[in-house]
Amino acid sequence: MFDLIIRNANLPDGRMGIDIGVRAGAIAEIAPTIAAEAGEEIDASGCLVSPPFVDPHFHMDATLSLGLPRMNVSGTLLEGIALWGELRPTLTTEAVVERALRYCDLAVSQGLLAIRSHVDVSDPELVTVKGLLEVKEKVASYIDLQLVAFPQDGYYRAPGAAEALERALDMGVDVVGGIPHFERTMDDGARSTAALCRIAAERGLPVDFHCDETDDPNSRHIETLAAETIRHGLQGRVAGSHLTSMHSMDNYYVSKLIPLMAEAQISAIPNPLINIMLQGRHDTYPKRRGMTRVPELMAAGITVGFGHDCVMDPWYSMGSGDMLEVAHMALHVTQMGSIENKRALFDAVTVNSAKILGLEGYGLEKGCNADFVILQARDPQEAIRLKANRLFVIKRGKVIADTAPRVARLHLEGRPEIVDGASYAPIAQIDNQ
Fold first, then answer.
1. Of 228, 229, 257, nearest to 243 (Cα)?
2. InterPro entries in the record, alphabetically (predicted)?
3. Domains with residue ranges and CATH for the chain
4. 213 tagged catalytic
5. Contacts of 358 (CB under 8 A, 6+ apart)
6. What confidence tens digit (pLDDT) does each residue in 361-398 have?
7. pLDDT digits (tens, 9 = 90+) for 135-187
8. Nearest in space to 369 (alpha carbons), one of 26, 16, 90
9. How far apart are CA 153 and CA 167, in angstroms?
10. Which residue in the list 213, 228, 325, 382 is annotated as catalytic?
């Protein structure tokens, strides 16, 4: 007897017509046919069943604050930072908690059940830290929320930032953050990288830096981050987020940089929606779009996970908490259009990002947590094409969100009454499963 059986599911690895049996919140059996009964059954009807979406880079302390205290008129990164500097002194813990919880509701509806959020520690009162630690506790039963101590205004540049970061870590923040390219000099950026990696090594914590989020090809802090990772024995525990300067670097330098990153086992976290919106602002034409070298990083064996970064905040007025929208944009800007490419992009918002966060029990194998999203699509590439509807979101074997199938009714003589976009999967693609 199972608590739940999902029947006739397609899996991201290409397996089709699979049953998944759940008992006590974990996957107890996964097979073409499970000849047993369950307290609840869901017929996936050939739809894709995936582990939950994972966002490895977000700013939950700022989310849903769009328009406070005013709009970002220029749409630039620097005006967004200035706006956040105006808003930060007015923040209350209650406001941070309320907005973050609302975003978590949206995330659950999108099947997004694990998030790594950077938390600004530039405020000596640590209002955002207090707020998001409270949120982390409140959502623990349905969202894995990791927090990064992020010195938004610079570890050395902002007075008191170093001490505030240590206090945030003492309070229970999970990850050491940094922003070396925002320090006053390249030398200060390198020094901050060394200091923060040393702190992480001493505390046994992971590292996740905003690194080289600029069009400047001479911003090469990822090189320093890789070297410090090796020096402190942090291999496999460090991520470089954004890495947009790599878009502008010459190929010879990158041919040395990527192997160094691979040696250091650094993960890369591009943020496609925000990167292409904020970068290249000083260009006329040709105009750079600021995405790092995703295909080359993947080819080198570097774990690449995509972040949403922002939703309706001083930096980005768009966003919906939909990680398939993130993958969809990444596909276009990286020109990764093959079937294999699309599967890799789907991995970048699921299994790769779960690996970056170090999530335990994540996946679709026996013994893994019974955490699933059932998508109104046949396979990963169709899920990205359609930005597929989430039919069911399941946490530890319990349905925590559901959405009716997305269909349209036609009123045309001689034509079908119902149109389901998911039924338009190309035959050649189906045969290639």
1. 257
2. Amidohydro_3, Metal-dep_hydrolase_composite, Metal_Hydrolase, Metallo-hydrolase_Enzymes
3. 2-51+363-431 (2.30.40.10), 53-357 (3.20.20.140)
4. yes
5. 206
6. 999 999 999 999 999 999 999 999 999 999 999 999 99
7. 999 999 999 999 999 999 999 999 999 999 999 999 999 999 999 999 999 99
8. 26
9. 16
10. 213
